[in-house]
């Protein structure tokens, strides 16, 4: 039996996707262990996977959790910089603690999240094969594609290419503390030293959970990149309670701002006001950043819960209002539901731009959201069937991508795993 280790950020969007992949990999006869910073989520133990701490005294659990808590209250560039600051501290911990705990666990191959930047170095240090999994938006740089933190569309004109290059250069400066740490570590070990961020990912296999239609046209993409579509589990072992009896038969609008950058109470109120009086019933999921009670009574009396059976609700919905986190967006598109996106930070602007670019919804930058603008977008997306038609086109592409089972098959082949 092969023993596959998983390294990824300890946040729901990344862990849940990796759980789906781990499930599919275990079904093919392999043992799985997660290596995480912070407090292991109960969801991993519930489905029977082991968890090993990566933080040690370098990045203790309570400090990691505090940094994520802080991230939830930040927006735009401040949130992006804080995310990368967490990444720099995580790099120190993974490089110092990772090789020892991975070796002790007896792992024979690694599956590394694309944003767990030092994970590939741990694999190289131990002589292990590894695959990269892109659970967020595809991060690979390309001058033809705007960086993931921008709202821009691709434009085949000189000034857009120059703009993209400048933005990618700025992002590389933000990556510098992480890259320097990785380069120094590899240099000391006599390993090849990467000159850019794209050189730290696997040269065997890079899996993206985007369908290929949900990506801007690219000129430079490594041959080892494979688009498989969303990494979702086929069934949820723990159903999420929901007051189904409160649904009154009106068309449903589902709204979620995710589980991290969701501590903006005013935005939930704006969403409720924008949907009031539209002959629709609104369901709001607040995530773990805010209790439903903290929002008080909202206009239109929407159903407000901390957690919702998201996929079940999306299947019943005519529209989703989202922060443009990739998992929520892909779940909506997998059911053919169009979106109104309110991106907050990190890769969310780039995801929102792709929603609008393919015609499956509209995007309003967080700082530009007003009651009037949001209501107008909701009305347009609900009334114009072209948005749903575009969403259904992505739905059909998702059905043929293969998802987690296909990703597990590709990993097994690329890394030489045999039962």
Task: Please characterize this protein's 3D structure.
There is one protein chain. The protein has 419 residues and is α/β, with parallel strands linked by helices. It is built from 13 helices and 13 strands. It has two domains: 3-229 and 402-414, Rossmann fold (3-Layer(aba) Sandwich); 244-399, Rossmann fold (3-Layer(aba) Sandwich), CATH 3.40.50. It has helices at 12-26, 42-46, 61-71, 76-105, 119-126, 158-189, 265-275, 310-315, 326-334, 348-358, 371-383, 385-401, 403-414, and strands spanning 3-7, 31-36, 50-53, 109-113, 130-134, 206-208, 225-227, 252-256, 281-285, 303-305, 317-322, 339-341, 361-363. It is globular.
Oligomer: single chain
How many separate domains? 2
| Broad structural category | alpha/beta
CATH fold name of the largest domain, please? Answer: Rossmann fold
The average pLDDT is 91
Helix/strand order, N-terminal first: EHEHEHHEHEHEEEHEEHEHEHEHHH
The main sheet orders its strands as 3-2-1-4-5-6-7
Strand tally, please? Answer: 13
Rg, Cα atoms, Å? 21 Å
Describe the main β-sheet briefly.
Answer: 7 strands, parallel
Global geometry: globular
Name the CATH homologous superfamily of the largest domain: Glycogen Phosphorylase B
Q: Which segments are poorly predicted (pLDDT under 50) over 5 or more consecutive residues? A: none
What is the CATH C level class of the largest domain, in words?
Alpha Beta
DSSP summary: helix tally: 13
Q: Name the CATH architecture of the largest domain.
A: 3-Layer(aba) Sandwich
Question: Percent range for helical residues?
Answer: 40-55%
Distance between the termini: 5 Å
